[in-house]
Every structure is written in C-alpha cells, then in structure tokens.
User: Fold these one by one.
Assistant:
Number 1:
Amino acid sequence: MSRKKIALIGGGQIGGVLTQLIAQRELGDVVLFDVVEDMPQGKTLDIAEASRIDSFDINLKGANSYSEIAGADLVIITAGLPRKPGMSRDDLLTTNAEIMKKVAEGVKANAPDAIVIIVSNPLDAMVTLFQKVSGFSAEKVFGQAGVLDSSRFSTFIAWELGVSVKDVNAMVLGGHGDTMVPLVRYANVNGIPVMEMLERKYNDKAKAKEVMSAMVERTKMAGGEVVKLLKTGSAFYSPASASIAMAEAILKDEKRLMPVCAYLNGEFGVDGYYVGVPAVLGEGGVEKVVELTLDEEEQKAMDVSVNAVKGLVADLQRLNYI
Ligand code: TXD
C-alpha cells in the first residue's frame, strides 16, 4: 500500500504542529505549503531532523508552489490570519475570505480528488466559501471546530468533577462562534449524566446549574481566553490535535462519530448550510450526519447559532465571494 499524501495549506502555528503530529504518528507524507518563502521549507527541515529521535519514516517537504500538492489524498487548511486580543472570529471574514478563495483555486487545480478539512476562521463561512469556489462535493469538504470545542468542554468537566477526562463525553454543536451550543443534557461520565454528578457533589440543584453554566460560558469563550493570554495569535496546539483526530478518522476509515462542521440537507431543520453537527467520519469524508433530539431550549440555542452562520454566509454573498 502506498503512503498517503497530506497537503497542509498554511505553515503557521497550527500548520507546524500538524506537521509534527503527522510525522510522529506516521500518518502519511507531508507537503507544507505557505506563501511565505523558505519558512515551510525551514519548518519541515527542522521536524525531519528529529526523525531519528522520534523514529519516523515519512517524507516532509516545504513548498511555495501549489504544483507540489499534486495528488494529495487529504488537505488541511489553516491559511489565514488568527485573531488578536479583543477581536471576534467574525472580524477575520474579509481578510481570510481573500486568502481562502486563492487556496480553493489552488487545491482545485492540483488536488481535485482530495478530502479537505478547513480550520481557518471564521470557520463556518470559510468552509462554505471553499466548497463553493472549488465545487468539490459537500461530503468531502468540512470543518474542524466541534472536536476542539468539545474537548475544551470535556476538560472543564473533568477538572470540576475530579475524574479522568478519558471518561468524559460531551459535545458542542452549532457554529464556531460565541453562539456555539454545548450540549449539557447529553454530557456524561461513562454514561452517568454530568448534571446528576454535579447535583450529588453540591447537594443543591441551583448550585449545580450555576456551576454548569459557568463551564458552558468558559467553553464558549475558551478561544478568546487563550488569545488574551498569548497576546500574539490564537490557540494552536489543541486545534492541531483536533484536526489530527479528524484526519486519522479519514485516513484509517475509522467511522468515528465526531462533531463536524458539515453540510446539511435538511437535517436539524437546516438546508444548504454548513453547521457543527454529529457526523460519522471515514474514508469517504462525512459519511453520515447523525441527528438527535433537542429539547426546546437546545433547539432555540441551535437556531440562534445557525442564524449567526447564515449571517456570515449572507456577508460572503453581499461581498460577492460566493
Ligand atoms: O478550531 C479552529 N477551527 C481554530 C481556527 C482554532 C484556532 C485558530 N483557528 C484559525 O486557524 C485562526 O483564526 C486562523 O484563521 C487559522 C490559522 O491559525 P494559526 O495560529 O496557524 O495562524 P498563523 O500562525 O498566522 O498561520 C497562518 C499562516 C501563515 O503562515 C501565513 O503566511 C499563511 O497562513 N497564509 C497563507 N498560506 C497559504 N496561502 C495563502 N494565501 C496564505 N496567506 C497567509
């Protein structure tokens, strides 16, 4: 079996960590593309020179030309500016739309059969733009947001309850913005509802609710919390890990159920938009969107989030990007 070829578009903070993680896991050969001259070549050389220490046997190449990504099986896109303190993800719309348009044209011309994971912000709008410009089928183009947002939520729950994060299952749906929807009712520790554990811990329903609301709020603002601390740039280790989990599910045809920014054809009452929903990821990309029952409050929160995504897509249309 020949090795898979993975093209990373954007050799910045996330692109660099992606390269290292792919190398350490030997997921495939990597081409790291960036518009900045020499930088991706420098990063791949640096990581390749750790191959003896980390014991990996793959080819790593830096590139400034799209011809180098020819025949890629998987493309992960992180090209675009990150947030500065005080900015929302949506503030990046026009700058990153310009970049994403060029990226979509480059990928379409050189890797027309690839599966594409978008990471650049504002996420839901960038996925939409890439799919429209490339014309790739919708199940082969999707975005990473929910895996990270859910991991953040799970981490906070584990800290609060004093249990291993490995036993926490919690999902965040909706758009990748301040309106994202952490699913409280479905959050559990090895099947035990988190709310029940909180109520037992505090022996007080109101207090349990208060603690959960604080974790939900922290999850929604978690990206901004890191931006504020870093001062230059946004989170990059955890977004890279989240993208690798998705890449692995595809490359190894794992059929993992994850929250994915996927194209909806009527599921969750949404038609023709990309939104974060549970989906099965395998070698075909998004192989299935999995629906679940939302109560009135959850549905309301989902509607608000979907409307925020619709607003961004309308902006892209108004600005003639799509
Ligand atoms: O969960 C998520 N989806 C995210 C997304 C979590 C955190 C950050 N997220 C977003 O990813 C962030 O808001 C940015 O839009 C992207 C990339 O974040 P990163 O931290 O890696 O940004 P960098 O370090 O600035 O890297 C961006 C690179 C940089 O090297 C530029 O030279 C390059 O993008 N760039 C381009 N590459 C290719 N083609 C074009 N046109 C281009 N323009 C800039």
Number 2:
Amino acid sequence: MRTPLVAGNWKMYGSRERNAALIRDLILGLENGAAAEVLVCPPFIFLHEIGRNLGGQKIRLGAQNASAEDEGAFTGEVSAPMLRDVGCSHAIVGHSERRILFREDDRLIARKFVAVQRAGLTPVLCVGESLEEREAGRTASVIDGQLGAVLDVAGVAAFHDAVVAYEPVWAIGTGRTASPDQAQETHAHIRGMIASRDAKIADSIRLLYGGSVKAANATELFAMPDVDGGLVGGASLEAGEFLRIIEAAA
Ligand code: PEP
C-alpha cells in the first residue's frame, strides 16, 4: 500500500507575507490530519523561513531544483547539502520548465538526482512529453529516454527513495489535463520500466501526476491504480483548493 503524496510546486510565486498566510491556512486545514503526505516547494529564498514555520508540523519542505555540485565556484547555484541544512526533505529535479527554459539535459538531471540523494534528500524526478511528441506517438519513448538516463546513472536501487512525477508538458499551466486513462497508461509504463529492473522497488515507488491538477479533476486522476498523488503547480498557491486536492488523494 503506497501512501499518497501531494506536492505543491509554487514556481516563482510568493512573498514572505503571502507565504505566511498560505502556510498558516494549510496548517489549520490539516489540523485533524491527512491520509496523504504533503510537501510544499517554495522558491529557494523562502525555504529557510518556511522551514522554521513548519517546525513540528507534518508538512514537508522541498526545493524546486538543486545543483549537481555540493559546493564550489558555481555562482547563483544552490546545493543539495544547503537545502538539507535549511530543512528540506525533498528536491524536484528535471521539471520541464528547467529542461526547456534552462536547457537542462538528461545527463545533468541524472547528476542532480544523485547529488540530491547524496545529501540525504528524496528526489522528485519529473518526466513528460511535449504535445508534438504525444501526437507523434512518442510518449513512451520520450519517457524511456528521460527515466532511463537516470536509472543508468543512479541505478535502480536509488529509486527505493525517490518519487517520479509524470508531467506531460502540454498539461502544465495550460488548464489542459491528461485524462485519467492517459495518466494511468503512462504511469503503468513508468512502473513497468522500473519493474523490469526491480519489481519490489517498482511496487513501492510513488508516481505522481502533474499538469493542471485541480480539486475538480483530482479525485478521478488519483483513483487510477498507478497514480499515487499529484505534483500541483498553480492550484497549490491557494490553500482551500490545495486542501481539497489533498483530500482527494486521501
Ligand atoms: C507544475 O508546475 O509542476 C505543474 C504541474 O503546474 P500546474 O499544476 O499549474 O499545471
């Protein structure tokens, strides 16, 4: 039995004041517990303060990115050990916005995945195809390439403590969601790919769906057998909506 996980990717949104209100409302809303694990991923600059506000709470803290290096002359970068130092338990790697806008390739993403684990954090590895790739019938081969690159570098055993998020690029921030069947088909493919290397790890790893998840579509997506929760962007910035999505996962 896999405990569902609902993660909020705040992207480059927020301010100290808005974050404090959002975190306060989430803590209040989760006062009576939740059957899902909850993770919030604010921008780097806010992590320390939010980590302190979350002290003793069940909400976990994650980063949206991490350097592949632990320290050194890498201006503007933030390393996984630093993220751990300010209270993060997770870090997203390979988000499509990083892949597309910042040209991060599979090799770099694999190195980031390894660096995140080396620091004792759980990587949330994002994979997903573009609209063009889906329409060309290439969804499975794109996923094979993205996931295979990390499996080859990190080894399947590393997925014992990792999360994979399937995020079709055409569904991120577009209001267009994969249908539950489309999500299930790709999640089953991902689990099968991991199972071909280690069946036990495949069975226990949590696979999140991301791409315009809202309270209105979360229940049917999370009901699919291989969907173990969600990676939520826009809808995680509004406490009431995010809480309803968490309820749907439970
Ligand atoms: C995301 O940022 O990972 C995401 C899925 O965004 P949205 O929910 O806004 O589509």
